[in-house]
Design goal:
The complex is a heterodimer of chains A (756) and B (158). Chain A contains 20 helices and 27 strands. With 756 residues, chain A is of the alpha+beta class. In chain A, helix 7 packs across helix 8 and helix 12 runs antiparallel to helix 13. Chain A is globular. Chain B folds into two domains: 76 residues, Roll (Ubiquitin-like (UB roll)); 70 residues, DNA polymerase, domain 1, CATH 1.10.150. The longest helix of chain B is centred in the C-terminal third of the chain and has 16 residues. Helix content of chain B is 34%, strand content 16%. The chains are: A alpha+beta (756), B alpha+beta (158). At the A-B interface, helix 1 and helix 18 of A face helix 2, helix 3, helix 4 and helix 5 of B. Chain B: GO terms for molecular function: 2 iron, 2 sulfur cluster binding; metal ion binding; oxidoreductase activity. Chain B: Pfam families: Fer2, Fer2_2.
Chain lengths: 756, 158
């Protein structure tokens, strides 16, 4: 059946209500099974040996002593994961990141692994592996690494995207550019110009559940993998490719996931666990320690960004320009490119230019972190926008409203916008009571906007109707924050039945067709679209069965509010049949009733948010306190508003941590000095106030219910909103994230010196 | 590597096990007794995901040795509900959507239970400081605090 995804403007019965999630009881009773909560008979414990050096050639690995230790069943190195990537450079990087081949490229890079009968034996075995390293010069700072004089991390990399092909290798892997118009001409028309440079430090997604998996490689060449992941289908493809298997022979089951935020979209330990299991001939459980999570998984880019924005006296921006340098870890990425795309996406600009540079450093391979790359670009741009408003003498909200993108605006990264929410979020902020709340001594208010693309992608969903009238919904997108509840609501809505009749599960890779990674805020957007499609297909069959039961033509049967109804006067005495009544008879009318859907969910509507926050700064110590925080964001349609609020609040909290405190700290030796939650401190309960939310609903025209993704945008504005608040409270422009007490104090003291 | 024989009480039941001298109580609960409700988020006492109550005291079970449970009372998340009946905190966490991924939830519930046992009528600030030893990365804590406030009201009325 042809599926019509267009927004229909229907009235909702289930969508928009707030029922309890189907996986809730297991999660409050401790029964839910996460990555590390699964065990198999005969299972071994896997452990990974990691490089203590930031950059070193691996001269020799001797595993013989470890292999001889009683209880050790397998020891592997890169030799056990041969290169089968067949020229696929990106997959080769993934392979090299899973197990260093010739060089260790960062502190924490895996170099060998063992499987043993218990954790103690495995730990002992790691100590018996002898590795001879030849130390190489390293570089961990993004600006240092971009210099011509920096130690080269990969001498086979020449900068892509330059007009002239470079003759020397570089740590800058790629240059990308976006924009339109003529910025030189635009700056010529400006009455005021703000030009500033900004830096942000590297952060980690900080999910509370470390990466964990159980791999079971069978002697018949098939394998099973239980793993906490945001995308079990993608993990299957990647693991199979790296291990030289057919993907169909690897079955991947996604466990409950204890947080991902983009960090569980990449394989690290899983190919290693499979290789260990293959070599040992037994199941292997591999769980990262928190130290390993920080040193070897995640993190986001550290950045260095230059921004220049010009405007006329009347508040119209005439030109905007940014140069963005993003660290990628030791492998090529496209992180600056995304930053360059998102930087000015909130605004209607005649002249705009952004240039991104991807920079290699001796740090862990950069991974996605919730709207990856956008928060740093927004920090730089929104800080400059605030400063420019101040220079002109305009209210920062009014200045943004004047320049906000609208339907029909050509975005700074290319496409022309449909109906969007940036203007409405700004108008909502303008009239929000938060803006009138009184500020105390040393307190400042800041606000900022944020944008994220959102994504749809390949999606496959099954909807099976049981003979008792229950509906089982099998989806292939991982539930990272309540999507089983929202998708059950959507199935109930489309079928016209009670939410309680529907139970959604996340199916494994052998039970359902391919699904893309649960990223890009696509979980509810794309799987709800597939659920609606599957439900419509099921309704077609339900109508056919009802027609059969009544012995009338199917065209005379319509589906309304969970019932088949015979239409037309000639069928006036037939009454109606409920979904359950039809399901009970299904064995006699043609067998099971189900609806399937396979689609590419196009048209994920772009997402905008505006945040307001009040910060108190202690001028003596530089310490900060978040006094008030408000999130205003467009959801398109909030399917389960409580979980939408949760996404807004969670993104804001992560942004607050990033803005004020979180950062990777490297020593001169290139080693990470704060690989634990004590020293890499994420916000705790007593650090935060209640986080107020306002959900706007500007329907996405490309989704039947108007849904947009909501997961990521909420982390985009906080860095800038807090920087603006701190700058207003401290009386000095903050340009370096995180704004930890020493940085704020230094800025205040420098300002005092300067004004003497 | 002779194991240490331990006799203890877990969620009201007498339990005996053998453990190694360097084995944490968290490892014993999870790997020897199959009580995987307590989670290891860090192994260093920073995240609170492994919170349990040991003789009326809230502890991180990753910082307690398995051998130290000898003769003591251990309460874990698996013992929080009475059969089919959820504890008011569990019910309020569900109603307020005080969990997203849920990995920190067992630790928060145990810590909140301990908090309300000692302070049945906490202010918002007391709740925030009382739960500051438990990390949540999903919720921003807003709905967790509200769930605990609501549960406190229900429990006072009970």
């Amino acid at each position: 059946m042809n599926f019509d995804p267009r927004f229909s403007g229907r009235k909702f019965a289930s969508v928009g209500t707030r029922p309890i999630r189907p996986d809730g009881i297991d999660k409050v009773t401790g029964r839910a099974r996460y990555g590390a909560d699964f065990n198999m008979a005969g299972q071994l414990v896997g452990r990974v040996l990691r490089s203590p050096h930031a950059h070193a050639r691996i001269v020799k690995i001797d595993t013989s002593k470890a292999e001889k230790l009683a209880g050790v069943k397998a020891v592997i190195t890169a030799a056990d994961l041969p290169d089968l990537t067949d020229g696929d450079a990106a997959m080769y990087d993934v392979l090299d990141n899973c197990m260093a081949r010739t060089k260790a490229l960062y502190d924490g890079h895996a170099v060998a692994a063992v499987a043993a009968i218990d954790a103690r034996t495995a730990r002992q075995a790691l100590k018996l592996i002898e590795i001879e390293y030849e130390l190489l010069p390293h570089v961990t700072d993004v600006d240092e690494a971009a210099k011509h004089t920096a130690p080269l991390i990969n001498d086979a990399i020449f900068t892509e995207g330059l007009e002239e092909k470079p003759v020397k290798p570089s740590n800058v892997t790629k240059r990308s550019q976006f924009g339109h118009g003529d910025v030189h001409q635009g700056f010529g028309q400006a009455d005021f110009i703000v030009e500033r440079s900004f830096k942000t430090e590297q952060t980690h997604q900080g999910y509370i559940e470390p990466h964990a998996c159980v791999a079971n490689f069978s002697s018949d060449g098939t394998a099973d993998l239980w793993v906490c992941t945001q995308g079990h289908f993608v993990y299957r493809q990647h693991c199979a490719q790296l291990l030289g298997m057919e993907a169909s022979k690897l079955r991947v089951t996604s466990s409950e996931i204890g947080g991902g935020f983009g960090g569980k979209t990449h394989v690290w330990a899983e190919p290693v666990a499979l290789a260990l299991s293959r070599k040992a001939g037994r199941p292997v459980k591999l769980v990262m320690t928190r130290d390993e999570v920080f040193r070897a998984s995640g993190p986001t880019s550290a950045t260095s960004i230059d921004v220049k924005i010009g405007a006329r006296k009347d508040g119209t921006i005439t030109a905007a320009e940014a140069t963005l340098r993003y660290s990628c870890g030791p492998y090529a990425g496209s992180w600056a490119e995304i930053g360059a795309m998102t930087a000015f996406a909130c605004y209607k600009l005649d002249n705009v230019k952004t240039v991104g540079y991807e920079v290699l450093v001796n740090r862990p391979k950069t991974a996605a972190y919730r709207a990856p790359s956008a928060p740093m670009a927004a920090f730089a741009v929104e800080s400059a926008v605030d400063e420019l408003a101040k220079k002109i003498g305009m209210d920062p909200v009014d200045f943004r409203i004047r320049n906000a993108a609208q339907e029909g605006t050509r975005s700074s990264y290319g496409p022309v916008y449909g109906p969007i929410g940036i203007g409405p979020t700004l108008e909502a902020v303008k009239s929000h009571p938060h803006m009138k709340a009184p500020l105390g001594k040393n307190q400042g208010r800041g606000m900022a906007c944020g944008f994220w693309f959102n994504f749809g992608g390949q999606t496959c969903t099954d909807l099976n109707i049981g003979m008792d009238g229950s509906v089982s919904l099998a989806v292939g997108t991982v539930d990272v924050g309540g999507s089983r509840a929202s998708l059950s609501l959507v199935a109930a809505e489309e079928l016209g039945i009670d939410y309680a009749q529907v139970k959604a599960i996340v199916a494994d890779t052998s039970s359902l067709g391919y699904n893309d990674m649960t990223d890009g805020s696509r979980g509810t957007f794309s799987s709800s679209m597939a659920t609606i499609s599957a439900a419509r297909n099921a309704i077609l069959i339900l109508r056919e069965r009802a027609a059969q039961m009544w012995d009338i033509a199917v065209d005379d049967v319509v589906w309304e509010k969970g019932h088949a109804i015979a239409k037309g006067e000639k069928h006036g005495n037939l009454g109606k049949l409920s979904l359950k009544e039809i399901a009970v008879e299904s064995g006699k009318t043609g067998g099971p009733i189900a609806g399937h859907s396979e689609l590419v969910a196009d048209g994920a509507g772009v997402s905008f948010a505006t945040h307001i926050c009040d910060i108190e700064v202690d001028p003596e110590t530089g310490a900060t306190r978040v006094i008030r925080y408000t999130v205003v964001q467009d959801a398109g349609k909030a399917v389960h508003p409580t979980y939408v609020e949760g996404q807004y609040q969670g993104g804001a909290a992560q942004g607050i941590g990033w803005a004020l405190n979180e950062e990777y700290i490297y020593g001169k030796d290139g080693r990470l000095q704060n690989a634990g939650f004590l020293d890499y401190r994420i916000p705790v309960c007593s650090d935060l106030p209640m986080i107020d939310t306002q959900i706007l609903e500007i329907p996405n025209p490309n989704h039947p219910y108007g849904v947009r993704g909501v997961g990521e945008t909420s982390i985009v504005p906080p860095l800038a909103a807090i920087a603006n608040a701190v700058s207003n409270a401290a009386g000095v422009r903050m340009t370096h994230i995180p704004m930890s007490p020493p940085r704020i104090l230094a800025a205040i003291e420098a300002e005092r010196e300067w004004s003497k | 590597m002779a194991g240490i024989a331990v006799s203890t009480t877990i969620n009201g039941d007498a339990v005996e096990y053998l453990c190694q001298p360097d084995e944490t109580l968290l490892d014993v609960l999870r790997d020897r007794l199959g009580l995987t409700g307590a989670k290891e988020g860090c192994g260093t006492g920073d995240c609170g995901a492994c919170s349990i109550i040991l003789d009326d005291r809230l502890v991180c079970s990753c910082l307690v040795l398995g051998a130290e449970a000898e003769g003591r009372r251990v309460e874990t998340i698996e013992g929080m509900a009475h059969g089919d009946t959820l504890h008011p905190l569990q019910q309020k966490f569900l109603e307020h959507a005080a969990l997203q991924c849920g990995i920190c939830t067992p630790g928060f519930l145990i810590a909140a239970k301990d908090l309300l046992a000692k302070n049945p009528d906490p202010t918002e600030e007391e709740i925030r400081f009382g739960l500051a030893g438990n990390l949540c990365r999903c919720t921003g804590y807003d709905k967790i605090v509200r769930a605990v406030q609501d549960a406190a009201i229900v429990m006072k009325g009970a």
